[in-house]
Amino acid sequence: MLGGIPGLGEHTIAILLAFYADLDRFSNARPTAAFAGLDPRHHESGISVKMKPRMSKVGHVFLRKSLYIPAMIALYQTAWGTRFRERLAAGGEPPKLVIGAMMRKLVHAAFGALKSGQTFDSSLHGC
Question: What is the pLDDT of residue 127?
Answer without folding.
Answer: 60
